[in-house]
Amino acid sequence: MTDQLTLALDTASGTVSVAVHDGAQVIAERAGQQSGKHAEQLTPLVEAVLAEAGRTREELTTVVAGVGPGPFTGLRVGLVTAGVLAYALDLELQGVCSLDAVAMGAVKAGAEGSFIAAMDARRREVYWARYEVLEIDGVRVPVRAALPEVSVPAELDLEGLRVAGRGAQLYPDVLGLPLEGPLDPSAGDLATLAALDKRFVLEPEPLYLRRPDAQANINRKRVLK
Amino acid sequence: MTEEPLVLGLETSCDETGVGIVRGGTLLADAVASSVDQHARFGGVVPEVASRAHLEAMVPTLRRACADAGVTLNDLDAIAVTSGPGLSGALMVGVAAAKALALALGKPLYGVNHLAAHVAVDILEHGPLPQPAVAMLVSGGHSSLLMVPDVTYDVQPLGRTIDDAAGEAFDKVARLLGLGFPGGPLVDKAAREGDPAAIRFPRGLSAAHDMRDHRFDFSFSGLKTAVARWVEQREANGEPVPINDVSASFQEAVVDVLTRKAVLACQENGAEHLLIGGGVAANSRLRAMAQERCDKAGIQLRVPRPKLCTDNGAMVAALGARMVQTGRTPSDLTLPADSSMPITLVQA
Ligand SMILES: [Zn+2]
């Protein structure tokens, strides 16, 4: 046992995932039972996962948040929660790409070589990135070639690779059946990656990948015909 | 602790990230980060832009409020947050932040109604609220007349706008006149150089049958169209638009209806006090006419200083402190953000 104690959380998908990691392994993990409702479920789940781990919030040293990409409103619920917990409890705050967690899930389920992980980006698009399976300290991990992108599934150049995650499950006709493993990011996998290698750690800021929908509205409508 | 509780209030229902700290009825800090400049070129608040700004501003604004108040988070007795009404995605950032604070500090959480908080903020300026009071809330998002027997649990709607909010009308007319965004202060400024009697614009919902069916309701959409029509007619005739006179006459029409109905609401509901809040309460003509008409009717007028009238965290903290003082049960950590929270629900 080390004196590191990490709370990890992810809200980049339709579900909420929380975990406690002691520096060596995940000691408790919970997922929300309702789809959506991130703001309602997250804090009670944090309380529950700490209780399940038999630890208190005062013992935490680190908080790891999934930075997406993912639907913005849910993503922000996770990031603001992580940011405020870090501020109020004086914790180190780290971000990890949520797609990396999906990819890690596929690797743990046996994925090898190169593959793609994809998540639902709504509007008939997916967030995706290409991964290479490598070994770090004896653990097989997915290493991302570049930052994730957002595309319509048909424009994704698969190069014969298989696809992991919710994105594949939503568009099997285009992306093929998903690789084995969880469809959505697991907070336990986020924590595992952050603990394993600092190269998985990103700024704790959302990966929006899209500009806000907003039209400059400076021309006035005329009322006289 | 319940005598003078130290309460932090969070507000993110629109484009201001507000963190206020009060001790009982005393204001200690009122930190506000606004994204208003980012919305200016869109001529109105863009929800996604506002939500992004709330996330970025949250921890820095919390930090600033604590520094301004000279307290640490561990000194706090309770956390209060606007749980509605407002922009859904924007509210969500504040609600999540407030829950994280409540969890981290092990302190009670109060999810409160934004409109009730606009009423409660006057405690910080003028002391305990008179009971009952009539409150008029006018801003870019709301135009409501409320009966307030007890701001911690009993607020009743008397009337509201049936179309645009008062502040929205100011924004639209400002855009029409090429004055900029947000419109309220710009129209107010132009109006000071203009003649309020130059043009007789319509007074919405003031005809006899409207005073029967919509006695305490407002309508500003017709007024906005009348102003547009007048300006376009001028332009069509190749005549210059007297911006100051149009501003003053438009403002007069808005303020006339607001103050007349507010005073009437006090008289008919046995309220000796009228409280005005919301961003439009900063309007100089509204303050002057309300004062004049209240004096004539023997009604005490209470309007907090402009900084407290606009959206801020202090108002949420003020209401939260009252809830602690009166022993209200805290909200649950499953508290949702409710974008259409009714005014009759003071606490979620
Ligand atoms: Zn407001």
List key phrases describing it.
heterodimer; A: 225 residues; alpha/beta; Nucleotidyltransferase, domain 5; 2 domains; six-stranded mixed β-sheet; 11 strands; B: 348 residues; five-stranded mixed β-sheet; globular; binds zinc ion; EC 2.3.1.234 (chain B); Peptidase_M22_CS (chain B); tRNA processing (chain B); metal-binding (chain B); transferase (chain B)
Summarize the structure.
Chain B: This is tRNA N6-adenosine threonylcarbamoyltransferase. Chain A has helices spanning 38-53, 72-89, 98-108, 166-170, 172-175, 187-196; strands at residues 6-10, 17-21, 26-31, 62-66, 92-96, 114-120, 126-136, 139-144, 149-151, 163-164, 201-202.
Q: How are the elements arranged and paired?
A:
The complex is a heterodimer of chains A (225) and B (348).
Chain A: E1 6-10, E2 17-21, E3 26-31, H1 38-53, E4 62-66, H2 72-89, E5 92-96, H3 98-108, E6 114-120, E7 126-136, E8 139-144, E9 149-151, E10 163-164, H4 166-170, H5 172-175, H6 187-196, E11 201-202
Parallel strand pairs in A: 1-4, 4-5, 6-10
Antiparallel strand pairs in A: 1-2, 2-3, 5-11, 6-7, 7-8, 7-9
Chain B: E1 6-11, E2 16-23, E3 26-34, H1 36-39, H2 47-69, E4 78-84, H3 88-105, E5 109-113, H4 114-120, H5 122-126, E6 133-138, E7 143-150, E8 154-160, H6 166-176, H7 183-192, H8 208-213, H9 221-236, H10 243-268, E9 273-277, H11 284-297, E10 300-302, H12 306-309, H13 313-325
Parallel strand pairs in B: 1-4, 4-5, 6-9, 9-10
Antiparallel strand pairs in B: 1-2, 2-3, 6-7, 7-8
Helix pairs in contact in B: 2-3, 4-13, 6-7, 6-9, 6-10, 7-10, 9-10, 10-11
Bound molecules: zinc ion.
